[in-house]
Amino acid sequence: MKLTRNKTFKTFADPLWQNNPISIQVLGICSALAVTVQMNTALVMALALTFVISFSNLTVSILRNSIPGNVRIIFELSIISTLVIIADQVLQAFMYDISRQLSVFVGLIITNCIVMGRAETFAMSNKPFISFADGLGNGLGYGGVLVLVAFFRELLGSGKLFGYDIVPESFYAAGYENMGFMLLAPAAFIIIGLLVWLQKTIMNK
Amino acid sequence: MKPVKNFFDSIRPHFEKGGRFSRLYPFYEAIESIFYGPDHVTRQGPHVRDSLDVKRFMTIVILALIPHLIFGIYNTGYQAHLAAGLPLDFFPVFTLGLWVVMPMVLVTYAVGFFWESLFAVIRKHHISEGLFVTCMLFPLTLPPTTPLWQVAVGISFGVVIGKEIFGGTGRNFLNPALTGRAFIFFAYPAQMSGDKVWTATIYNNNAAVDAVSGATPLAIATLTEAPERIEQVLVDSGYSFSQMFWGLYPGSIGSTSAFLCLVGAFILIILGIASYRIILGGVLGVLMTGWLLNLLAGGSSLAWLTLNPFYHLVMGGLAFGLAYMATDPVSAPDMENAKWIYGFLIGVLTVLIRVFNPAFPEGIMLAILFMNLFAPFLDYFAVKTVCKKRIPNV
C-alpha cells in the first residue's frame, strides 16, 4: 500500500493543508497574534505546541477506555497541563531568553483550543498511534502557519530573520523603511487573512 | 460622433462573452463609457433614485476636489518657500508645488488603477469610477514629504484590503482612501506624524532649510499647557483664525483649507451628492463636545479643554474629512436618522481623540473609520425604529 493512501498518513497530512487548524478552522488565533513578531519565538512556540498536542493526544488515547465520561474534561486538562508544565520548564532551563519573550503564552497553550479540541474530538475515540499522528499533524499545521506569519512580520517589520539582518544597508540608504505596523498585533490578522485567501484560491482551483 | 459609435459597436463582439478578448471587457467598458453613457443599471449600492448614476456621482466629487488639489499645490510650494526664506511669487511657488504634489497624484492613480483593473479582469466586474475618487482623496490627505513608494504601498492597501477583497465599489464597509492612509500612518509613523513632515524641503544652495519649524496648528495645540490659551499660542506662532480658515498653513496637502471644504460641501449638498445630515451632524457634534469640554475645563492642565470649539472646525483635516470622507455614500449609513447619529458621533469622537489622546493630534481619520464600522449597525436600528412606527398603522 502506498504511503499516501495509508489512513495514519492521511490523518497526519490532513491538518497540514486541507483542514489546517488556523487557516481553515480558525482556531488558536490568539497565540498566533502574540508570538509571531519574530521567527525565533514562533518556531519555539510551534515546537512546544506540537510536543504538547501530540503527547496529550497519545496519553488521552491510551487512557480513553478508563476515563469516566462525565469528568473527562478535567482528565484531559490535567494531562495537558502536565505536558505544558514540562514544556515550560524545559524552555526555562535551556532557552531562558526565548522563554521570557514568550512569557505567558507557553503557559497558555493549556487553553489553546486546538489541543483541547483534538483531545476531545479525536483522541477520545481513536487508537493511540493514529491519535499521535493526528496531534503531530495539527501541531505542525499550526506551527507552519505561525512560522509563515512570523516570516513576513519579522522581514517586513524589522528587516530581520531569526534576529539576523536581511534587508541590506543600501536599501535603507535608498529610503526604505521598516513597516512599523507589522510589529503590531493587527498585522498578524491581516497576514493570516491573506494566507487564508491564498489557500482558498488554490484549493478551489 | 457617428463613426465613433460605429467603431465601438463593431469591436464590441470581441469583448463580450465568448469573444477573443472577453477577459479585457472591463477595459473596453471603461473606455466606451468615457464616450457614451452606459446602458446598464446599478445593481448594488450605493443606490440612487434618479438619473444620477455612480459615474456622474463620482465625477462630481472629483470636480469638487479639483480646487483642493490646486490650492494644495500652491500651499505646498508656499510653505516650502516660506520655510526656506525664498520669495513668495506665485509662479515659482506654484511650480515647486506641482513638482512635489503631481508625482504623488500620478503614482496614486497608476498604482490604484493597476489593482482595480487587475481585480476587474479576474473577478469580471466593471472598473469603477469610485476608484478615481479614492485616488484623488488619498494624496490630498498625505503630508507633502511622503516618499512615493509609501504612497504606492498605502494606495495598494487601501484599494485591495479596503475595497477589492470585499467585492469592489459598493461593497466596502470602510472608506478605501482612509484605510490606505491609516495603514501608512501606523506602518511608517516617522513619515506621517511629527513636526518635520508637513513642509516640503527645497535643496537649494543659498537657502537655509529647517529654518522654520513646520509644526501644524494641531501639534502646537497639543503641546500647549494650561493656563496658556491655545488661541493665543496659535496667534503667537503665526496662525490666526482667519488664516486657518483660508488654509495657508502647513498640513496635509489638500485638507488645510476649511473655506474650500465649505464651498465643496455646499456644491455637493446642492447637487444631492453629499448628505447634509452627516455634515451638519458632524459640525454639531464638534461644537457640542467642544462646549461641553469648556464647561468641564475648570482648573485642568489640559489647554485643549478651554479651546473655542470653532477652532476645531478650521484646524487640520476635520472639515475635509467631514465634507468628503464621512459622506462617502458606500461606507456611510443609508437611513436618514442614522446619518444624523453617524455624523454627530464622528464629530464627538474627533474632538475626544484630539483632546485626550496626544499620540494622535489628528482625530478625524480614526473617527471616520471607527464610525464606518458602526454604519450597518446604525442602519439596522434606524430600520427597526421605522418598522416599529409603521406596524400599528398597518
Identify the quaternary structure here: heterodimer
How many helices of chain A? The count is 10
Helical content class of chain B: 55-70%
Give the strand content of chain A: under 5%
> What is the share of helical residues of chain A?
55-70%
If you average the pLDDT of chain A, what whole number results? Answer: 89
- The number of strands of chain A is 2
**Helix-and-strand structural type of chain B:** mainly alpha
Helix-strand string of chain B = HHHHHHHHHHHHHHHHH
Biggest interface between chains: A-B, 10 and 12 residues
Radius of gyration of chain B: 22 Å
Mean pLDDT of chain B: 84
What's the number of helices of chain B?
A: 17
Q: Roughly what fraction of the amino acids of chain B lie in strands?
A: under 5%
What does this structure look like?
The complex is a heterodimer of chains A (205) and B (394). With 205 residues, chain A is mainly alpha-helical. Chain A is built from ten helices and two strands, in the order H-H-H-H-H-H-H-H-E-E-H-H. Chain A has helices at residues 7-13, 29-34, 39-63, 72-94, 96-102, 104-107, 113-121, 128-158, 169-173, 185-204, and strands spanning 160-161, 164-165. A two-stranded antiparallel sheet of chain A has the order 1-2. In chain A, strand 1 (160-161) and strand 2 form a beta hairpin. In chain A, helix 4 packs across helix 5. The two termini of chain A are 28 Å apart. With 394 residues, chain B is mostly helical. Chain B folds into three domains: 2-35, no CATH class; 54-208; 217-388, no CATH class. Helix content of chain B is 62%, strand content 0%. Chain B has helices at 2-15, 25-35, 54-84, 90-123, 130-140, 148-160, 176-187, 189-192, 217-223, 230-236, 241-246, 258-270, 276-296, 309-314, 318-325, 336-356, 364-390. The longest helix of chain B is centred in the first third of the chain and has 34 residues, at 90-123. Chain B is globular and about 75 Å long. In chain B, 46% of the residues are buried. The A-B interface holds A 175-177, 179-182, 184, 190, 197 and B 147, 149-150, 161, 165, 183, 186-191.
